[in-house]
Every structure is written in C-alpha cells, then in structure tokens.
Amino acid sequence: MRLDRFLSSQIADVSRKDVKKLCLKGRVTVNGTAAKRSDMHIDENKDVVLLDGKKIEYKEHIYIMLNKPRGVVCATRDGLSKTVLELIPEELRRKGLFPAGRLDKDTEGFVLITDDGELAHRMLSPAHHVPKTYFVRLEKPWEESYKETFGQGFEDDEGGRWLPAEFEPSQENDRECLLTITEGRYHQVKRMFIQLGNRVEFLKRIRIGKMELDANLPAGGCLEILHKDVDKLLTKKSG
Ligand code: URA
C-alpha cells in the first residue's frame, strides 16, 4: 500500500496531500528512516510507520462501543444537536465513521460506531434478526399478560405485525423490564408499549447480539471493540 494512502486512511483529517507535506517536513519515518516520498510503498502489516514519533497501527476497520447519553443524535451531521461522532475521542477518529443503527435522541445506551459498512448491514438487516436488548422503565406497572403478547408477536400500528419479542419483567420493580427485539423499526419499543396501553419513560439499549454494553462505561464514553469480539455483534442467540 502507498504510504499516503496508509496514513490518510488511518488518521482522521489527514489527506494524501497532507501526507506529502508531513514527509517533506521529516515528520514520518518508515522502519526508522525518514520517508522522503509519500508515494513510497509499504507493507501495512509489517513496516513500522511513525508520525511525530508515534506508531501508527494499521486496522482495516474500527469498531467502537459508545454509551450514548440522552440529548445526542445518531447522525453524522446535525445543525442543532450534538452528534454521536462528536463524542469519539481523537485517537479513535478516522474517515468514514458512522453510527450503525439509530437510537432516539432521548434514548441512552449502546451504539456501534464503525467504518465497516458490510458489518453494519449484516447487523441491521431485518433478514439477520440480530437481537437488541433494551432496559425499559414504564409509566405504569407492567402486566403479566405482556410476556405472552410479546412472545407471540402482535398487530402493529400500521396494519402489519411486530415480530415476537422477549419480555423479561424485573422482580424488584413493577415498572421496569427488559425487552429484546429482532427488528429495528422507527420508535419500535415506544410504539409497542403504547399499543399495550402503557408508555416508555426511560429507554436504554444494553446489548447488541451477544455483546453487552460495558457496565463501567460512563454516559458519553467510548471503548474500542477488539476484532476477535466483533462476531458477537452478529450472534443471534445470547447465552
Ligand atoms: N425503540 C425506540 O422506541 N427508540 C429507540 O431509540 C430504540 C428502540
């Protein structure tokens, strides 16, 4: 791979032209020698490339677990509100990042930020039925009948059907529960509870596939997901 392509793909806000300038200034080294030409070829998996003395590791894609706080929008750009991308720290930023799937502005919890379009498609496509689990606090107590209703699926508010979902009531609090759905339709959890005569007061996504939101991650915090764990985002059955 060319050095300029390598560096511009791994560092946000650095273009190929910028790499040329960085090389001219002697700020880039390859295996200990200053790189004079930005079009030189390197082995991205073996050669040691430093920018200002800092090693630049090659990763084809990056996967970030974000604990989205309320008030932030799942978009790459928004004129008014803060976006999830603005919460990504400098060291994890790179070109092409986007949120794979959307949570409402007032919903909290696990959002995957990545530059891997193929994985995002597999995770979000209805055909793959990747389960997503939400912690829900309701306005009114849940009813015993919810388990069966969700378990069987029921008529939606558009003349179709909601696919079966797993309802797990809290044993400690009669307004709290977990709900696992395998679709990702607009305002889905809120709409499902409205149809049952209740209302969602607080919503937080706590799991995607088999991957749990890290309990130690504060609201607004990010964590890089290791490549060996990425498959968990696609796993259908938890446990
Ligand atoms: N369901 C909703 O209603 N809102 C979300 O943000 C996610 C799922």
Key attributes of the depicted protein:
239 residues; alpha+beta; Structural Genomics Hypothetical 15.5 Kd Protein In mrcA-pckA Intergenic Region, Chain A; Alpha-Beta Plaits; 3 domains; nine-stranded mixed β-sheet; four-stranded antiparallel β-sheet; 5 helices; 26% strand; binds uracil
Summarize the structure.
This protein is α+β, with helices and mostly antiparallel strands and 239 residues long. Helix content is 17%, strand content 26%. It folds into three domains: 3-55, Structural Genomics Hypothetical 15.5 Kd Protein In mrcA-pckA Intergenic Region, Chain A, CATH 3.10.290; 63-126 and 215-234, Alpha-Beta Plaits (2-Layer Sandwich); 132-208, 2-Layer Sandwich (Alpha-Beta Plaits), CATH 3.30.70.1560.
Q: What would your notes on this structure say?
A:
The protein is an alpha+beta fold and 239 residues long. It folds into 3 domains: 3-55, Structural Genomics Hypothetical 15.5 Kd Protein In mrcA-pckA Intergenic Region, Chain A; 63-126 and 215-234, Pseudouridine synthase I, catalytic domain, N-terminal subdomain (Alpha-Beta Plaits, 2-Layer Sandwich), CATH 3.30.70; 132-208, Alpha-Beta Plaits (2-Layer Sandwich), CATH 3.30.70. The chain is 17% helix and 26% strand. It has 5 helices and 15 strands. The protein has helices at residues 3-10, 16-24, 117-124, 146-152, 188-195, and strands at 28-30, 33-34, 49-51, 54-55, 63-68, 98-100, 108-114, 132-138, 154-155, 161-162, 166-169, 176-181, 200-208, 211-212, 222-224. The strands form 3 sheets. Strands 5, 6, 7, 8, 11, 12, 13, 14 and 15 form a 9-stranded mixed beta sheet that branches. The chain has a 4-stranded antiparallel beta sheet with strand order 2-1-3-4. A hairpin with a 7-residue loop joins strand 6 (98-100) and strand 7. Helix 1 crosses helix 2 (16-24). The structure holds uracil (URA).
